[in-house]
Amino acid sequence: MDIRWNEILITGDPLILGSQIAILLTMIGVVAGITYLKKWKWLWTEWITTVDHKRIGIMYIIAAVLMFFRGGMDGLLMKAQTSRPEMGFLDSQHYNEIFTTHGVIMILFMAMPFLIGLMNVVIPLQIGARDVAFPQLNALSFWLFFSGAMLFNISFVIGGSPDAGWTSYFPLAGKEFSPGIGNNYYAVALQIAGIGTLMTGINFIVTILKMRTKGMTLMRMPMFAWTTLITSAIIVAAFPIFTVALALMTFDRLYGTHFFTLSAGGSDMLWANLFWLWGHPEVYIVALPAFGIFSEVIATFSRKTLYGYKSMVYAIVGIALLSMLVWVHHFYTMGSGALVNSFFSITTMLIAVPTGVKVFNWLFTMRKGRIKMTNAMLWALAFVPCFTIGGVTGVMLAMGAADYQYHNTLFLVAHFHYVLIPGVVFAVFAGLYYWWPKMFGYMLNEKIGKWHFWLFVIGFNVTFMPMFFLGLNGAVRRAYTFSEESGFAPLFLLSAIGSVILALGFAAFCYNIYWSIRYADRNISSDPWDARTLEWATASPVQHYNFAKLPEVKSLDAFWYMKKNNEGLTLKDSEIEEIHMPSNSGLPFIMCVAFGIVGFFLVFEWHILAAIGALGIVAGLIYRSFDYNDGYHIHVDEIKETEKSWRNVEGEVHNHVS
Amino acid sequence: MLKLKLFFISLFSILFLSGCEMIVFQPQGPVARSITELINWSLIWMGLVVVVVFALFGYIIWKYREKPENMDYEPPEEHGNTLYEIIWTAIPILIVIAITIPTVKTLYALEEVPKGYEEKEPITIHVTSADWKWIFSYPEQDIETVNYVNIPADTPVDFKLTSASTMQSFWVPALGGQKYSMGKMETQLYLVADNPGSYWGRNTNFNGKGYADMEFEVLAQTQEDFDKWVEEVRETAPELTEEKYEELLKPTHLGRMTFNKTHLEWVNHADPNSKTYTHPELYKNHGYRGKTFEEEDNYRNKNNQEHMNHDSHDNDSNDGHGGDHSGH
After folding, report:
1. A280/A73 Cα distance (integer angstroms)
2. Where, by residue number, does the polypeptide cross the bilayer (chain B) (predicted)?
3. What residue spans of B214-301 are helical by DSSP H?
């Protein structure tokens, strides 16, 4: 094993050198800060070892916001580079790395963890459970995601970033054309994070199927719980494909096999098919929970039950099934022939039908309602027109023959940003404003939130709307520059200006979090929005056992029904019983470290070191197999104390507030 | 909301006015024209969807927004309406059918010689993409060009696409759509130019450092001019040799080049058992390099190659690695 020490750190680029120094200083700052405040023990016992779904959810969200920043910086760098023709800000190699990491980070390390974070916080509460089915597995899911995300993120300062696009098409991504280790990061880091996601999928399926409270039939579940269930099913169906594809990629790159290579009979089309067999369902993995969030927010702030609940459920099931049957629309131009392309054109366009049903149901939920324009609701409202543009351009792209002109152009790029930003980013913002008081016991500032909203929405449209037209005029994706004669300059500049507005919106969001942590009113009701679902039936922030007595559900919109009929809102001392809860465990974090170390060595192809590190993983698995810790019981007195502290406060929900 | 909408409308109208000059909407041949017609047809329906949804959206949020006057209004319990739900399921289905039929028709038509040109003998041009250049071989004329291709106008051109390196996509937006070019297999694309003229083409599928500059020119000429050009090339251009060709395939940017003879004489990259021309040692960036593997079928191991070829003829298990995927 030959280690070339002097090549490990990337040198010679001032931007990267700046980042290296910044990362080092931040790390020193964080370590020094925690030491100074003597918070190490608190960090370990309260957060790192926690198996509490709410805390795990919050950690997911924090990680996602950080990744949003990273991915957003990548986006800004790209926009700066293409703001003028023949710009020399980034060279081709650097640009290629940046759009690759932008794509991977935004989809896999921002969108997914953000949604999984919200799912973690909300789902057990919504179905009236005390935790997920496998709390320690849940912690392991988070820590594996974190391990993969961190491994992927160090690539640009250590060893080199992947540079073959987030789709990582072969043969480009193979050793024949990318001999650097950058794409090893892709293969290994996504594998580690992917295992975590797969376990999350299994965990939530079991949680939702087995842990619903009394009376919570499937058809009485909140829409977010439904979308989470279906999303988890898609995860379990689709992620193993990615696991296999990444494993084959790893073999090709590390051990010289020929699954996807140009030489010795490899097939690049095999990679494209496997990637999109996972990649298209992945789009719905992030879109469906977002639809669930919008459903909750729109129903609450229109003060109406969700219109056409049943057809909404059928629509998401339909979307989930169709999502598995459309992958070829990502490469109509591969020459599969008219019959294949026709089939996939039709299945793809059919997705518009259930999606349209959902949009109309949301509109009709608002009809005859009383629409309260809170920040959460504003995000849900802005979603409808923006997503409609994304949807109709999606239908245009679905038309195989027309796609011969759109494929790989900025028209496509504009389309998927119009789907993913309204469909996912608006949703997580809506969800964050909506559930923030439930997570932390205070609200985000509505006024700063308005700045956040308008800057972000306007910036988003100014950034991506011009791209439709650039694409129709022949501008392609992933090109690091363009010529003066192309005539693309004005629209590219407009798009770059939009991205600055977008970034200001994100800054306003960060400032809002800071402001609210410091100054927001802590004295709020546990049900500040007059909401409809069970998570609002308990304290804010939620006590670690969630419910002193598990609620009984008699209808859809269970909490609304309870408030209306004044049932189950109060708690008698005699009803309190001991509660059994799982114990914290440091093992998931240790596994995170072990996976990270093995992953790092594999990336650098230091196989002996990787094998030694893998012993750590095996040891962790063995340890867990002999772990008989059965959790602990919370005493009645402690529960009484906790419940008293929030229930008898003024303004608390004892009756229907309207 | 109102401000946002005004903003949208003005942005749309500015972009739409400039839209009439966009390359996709100015087809210069029957193939491109059929696609543009399809796009225009879809735009009508999609415009309708956008108008209906936006109007309904604007009306509902304006009418039912919370105001100081309606604070005591309690919305009714309402679970849905089967009729409405049938309507907004059925109408999208009808719209999908309305755009599916021409889509499928066009998809089939794109596989054939364009309508009205069935009588004309198509000219065949082999396109080989490499890092980062386009190589055009004229088997009938026995000439080869790099980064430009001359074609006779008003004649169907049968482009046979393959790649000597990564996956690329051959796109001439004014004349028609695009198709991938992939190593060890062949895809196919018909294009026709109505009139003589210069048309811009490029690779749309990202393939590394030199991707942004991977452009070429399609020059459509009258049959007379085209024949004259071929004649001229045959008289003046240097002969393409195997060594020269191997040099061409290295990852470089080249200007235009013209040769007598084509590389098809010694290698057809579309053949699944053809040699591989990869140069991992020439792809450098600032990162840490991993292990690269010596490939037996690389052109530099010529003896091995012959040996392998020999093997694969005798041995069925080596056949058809990618051959059955080749285009049509």
Report:
1. 25
2. 38-62, 83-104
3. 223-236, 242-248
pLDDT given at position A5:
77
The residues in B 100-139 lying below 8 A from A, measured between CB atoms, are 100, 103-104, 106-108, 110-111, 131
Looking at the complex, does the CB of residue B324 fall below 8 Å from at least one CB of chain A?
A: no
Sketch the domain layout of chain B as residue ranges.
Answer: 21-58+86-111, 123-276
- Give A177's contacts in chain B (Cβ within 8 Å): 131, 165-166, 207-208, 278, 280, 283
> Which pLDDT tens digit goes with each residue over A66-79?
999 989 999 999 99
Residues whose CB is less than 8 angstroms from the CB of residue A210 and which lie 6 or more positions away in sequence, other chains included: A133
Q: State the average pLDDT over residues A582-598.
A: 91
Task: Report the greatest alpha carbon distance in chain A.
Answer: 81
- Asked if the model's pLDDT at residue A530 lies above 70, the reply is yes
Q: Which residues pair with B128 in a beta bridge?
A: B135, B162
Confidence category of residue B317, pLDDT binned at 50, 70, 90 = very low
| Widest CA span in chain B | 91
Q: Flag whether residue B212 sits within 8 Å of chain A, measured between CB atoms.
A: yes
Chain A interface mutation, best of B285, B291, B297, B324, highest count of A Cβ atoms under 10 Å: B285
CB A87 within 8 A of CB A81: yes
Amino acid at A577: E
Interface touch A307/B80, C-beta < 8 Å: yes
Residue of B nearest to A367 (CA): B60
CB contact under 8 A, B108 and A338: yes
- Summary mean pLDDT of chain A: 89
CB pairs under 8 A between A and B: 363
Residue B73: per-residue pLDDT: 84
Looking at residue A514, its pLDDT comes to: 93
Which residues in chain A touch residue B128, judged by CB atoms under 8 angstroms apart?
Answer: none
Q: What is the pLDDT of residues A396-455, one digit of tens each?
A: 999 988 999 999 999 999 999 999 999 999 999 999 999 999 999 889 998 999 999 999
Check B46 against A359: CB less than 8 A apart: no
> Among partner residues B18, B107, B211, which is closest to A479 by beta-carbon distance?
B211
Q: Name the DSSP letter for residue A424.
A: I
- Closest residue to A401, CB basis, from B103, B285, B297: B103
Q: Shortest Cα distance from A512 to chain B (angstroms)?
A: 22
- Chain B residues touching A172 at Cβ < 8 A: 166-167, 206-208
Architecture of domain B123-276: Sandwich (2.60)
Cα A445 to Cα A193, A382, A436, A456, A508, distances in angstroms: 33, 19, 11, 16, 11
- Torsion-angle region of A361 (φ positive above 0: left; ψ -120 to 50: alpha; else: beta): alpha
Query: Cβ-count burial of A348 within 10 angstroms (0-12 exposed, 13-18 middle, 19+ buried)?
Result: buried
3-state secondary structure labels for all residues of A157-183: CECCCCCCCCCCCCCCCCCCCCCECHH
pLDDT band at A381 (very low <50, low <70, confident <90, very high): very high
Give residue B243's identity as a one-letter amino acid code: E
Q: Can you tell me the ipTM of this complex?
A: 0.85
Q: What number is the average pLDDT over the span A27-42?
A: 87
Q: Which of A66-80, A248-262, B203-217, B286-300 has the weakest average pLDDT?
A: B286-300
* Whole-angstrom distance, CA of residue A208 vs CA of residue A256: 43
pLDDT of residue A65: 92
**What is the pTM for the complete model shown?**
0.89
Q: What percent of chain A has pLDDT over 90?
A: 55
Which of B43, B112, B178, B269 to mutate against chain A (most A CBs within 10 Å)? Answer: B178
Return the closest-CA partner of residue B163 out of B202, B134, B201: B134
Do the Cβ atoms of A338 and B110 come within 8 Å? yes
Nearest to A461 among B8, B84, B291 (CB): B8
